[in-house]
Amino acid sequence: MTRLTLIALALALLASPAGAQGFNMSSNNEAQIQVYADDGIEWINDANRVVARGNAKAIRGGVTVVADTLTAYYRQGPGGNEIWRLDADGAVKITSATETATGTKATYDLDKAIFVLRGTPAKLVTPTDTVTAKDTLEYWEKDRLAVARGDAVATNNEKTIKSDTLSARFKEGAKGSLELNRADAYGHVVLITPREQVTGDRGDYNVESGIATVAGSVKITREGNELNGGYAHVNLNTGISKLFGSAPGDKGGNKRASGTFTPEKNAPEKNSTEKRGALFQGAGPHKDGGR
To answer: Which residue of 76, 134, 255, 258 sits 20 to 30 Å from the alpha carbon of 273, by its own alpha carbon?
Structure first.
């Protein structure tokens, strides 16, 4: 394995401080980067870039970027040369002590503290959550925010949210790892739990409260029963779903929620009715804000 010691000594990564948890390659403005490669490292001085090939690896602080090829772009800074961008190509893996992000290509903007992954799919994995995307997966270090585009999926324990575009906000967990705090979904939203499936045009999920809201052509299905409306308030902790004809503030609030219920086989009608009442709570035009 070839090690370019000159890079480790001369090219300091200068960036604004950020949080210490999760991915934090841009957080320590005094640390330097170490670059390794099996097939050599090329310094292209006129173009202000360094190219590492063959199981290339860049390490800074607690974050490591591995790829088939790494290209580091640098410039003259107050303290000497500083790297401001890393491009990774082929079998990309970005790791911290508790998180992993993978894809086929990545761009890491150290000035903005953002990396963008591409893959089939691109994936971000924390100890409790997984976020994937077919097109791009962005991670904003300072905001602890992941934005997934194209067949986006976020999973948290036994709960899954799918949509065209999804933003996932994280908080610092008990051991400093990233934990999903809130997810917002846009376009062809599907919320899946072990008990039910909710679809709509847009939605959000608050992990701490366990409450999800879904709006726009909403459909809730559970155990062969189906509800349709304009806005749903789903408590994933209690299992109670409330459906309304329209979302709060919707001027077209004259719509009505509707449902289709399938009787249980070989069960008395009374018991079947009681169970259906516990599964869903339906309503007409929305009045109470849903929270």
So the answer is: 255
For residue 93, what are its two tokens?
């893996």
With 0.85 as the threshold, say if the pTM is over it. no
pLDDT value, residue 12:
36
Neighbouring-strand partners of residue 44: 49
Q: What pLDDT was estimated at residue 159?
A: 94
Tokens 């002590």 — which residue?
A: 97
279 phi, psi to nearest 5 deg: -70, -45
- Among 85-94, 118-127, 132-141, 232-241, whose mean pLDDT is lowest? 232-241
| Closest C-alpha among 178, 176, 222, 175 to residue 198 | 222
CB atoms within 10 A of CB 269: 9
Structure tokens that stand for 45 in this block: 């001085």
* H or E stretch at 270: helix 269-279
Could you tell me the two tokens for 122?
A: 């691109």
Nearest-angstrom CA–CA distance, 200 and 215: 6
CB atoms near residue 235 (< 10 Å):
13
Residue 101: which residues within 8 A CB-CB, separation 6 or more? 23, 93, 94, 95, 115, 117, 122, 123, 124, 125, 137, 139
pLDDT mean over 222-235: 90
List Cβ neighbours of 6 (8 Å cut-off, separation of 6 or more). Answer: 43
Distances in Å between the alpha carbon of 86 and those of 50, 72, 73, 279, 286?
10, 5, 6, 51, 50
pLDDT at 88 (0 to 100): 98
Distance of CA 106 to the CA centre of its chain: 16
Q: Residue 196: beta bridge partners?
A: none
